[in-house]
Amino acid sequence: MNEELGHATGRTTLAWQRTAFSLVVASAVLLRLTWAGLGPVALVLLAGPLGLSAWVAVLGRHDRRLDGGTGGLAPPPTAAIATATVLLAVTELVAARVT
């Protein structure tokens, strides 16, 4: 059973890393697509999502197990992912409004 918990922990960690990296890629693509319309404002708007996503990716690389590996995972940075997603949406709305 403990081996199963270890595999589940690894899959959860990988899922958070994939989510963070996908938000980094989405931020980079959105920056590329909105640069013509917003210019440096796009970089300012996307600095938050890029930073939050990178932070979550770094957290995902570290061992986040509680109690030396016996107590499951530490709580994921859900608020950081949600905030990055909302900031991406706001940037897209601003870009759509300007162009």
Describe the protein.
With 99 residues, the chain is an all-alpha fold. Helices cover 81% and strands 0% of the residues. α1 runs parallel beside α3. The longest helix is centred in the first third of the chain and has 37 residues. The termini are far apart. The mean pLDDT is 79.
Q: How far is the first residue's CA from the last residue's CA?
A: 56 Å
Largest sheet geometry: none
Global Rg? 17 Å
Bin the helical content: over 70%
Number of strands: 0
Report the β-strand fraction as a percent range: under 5%
How many individual helices?
3
H/E series: HHH
- Structural class, from secondary structure content? mainly alpha
The average pLDDT score comes to: 79
Question: Which residues form runs of ≥5 with pLDDT under 50?
Answer: none
Summarize the SSE layout with pairings.
Elements: H1 2-38, H2 40-61, H3 78-98
Helix pairs in contact: 1-2, 1-3, 2-3
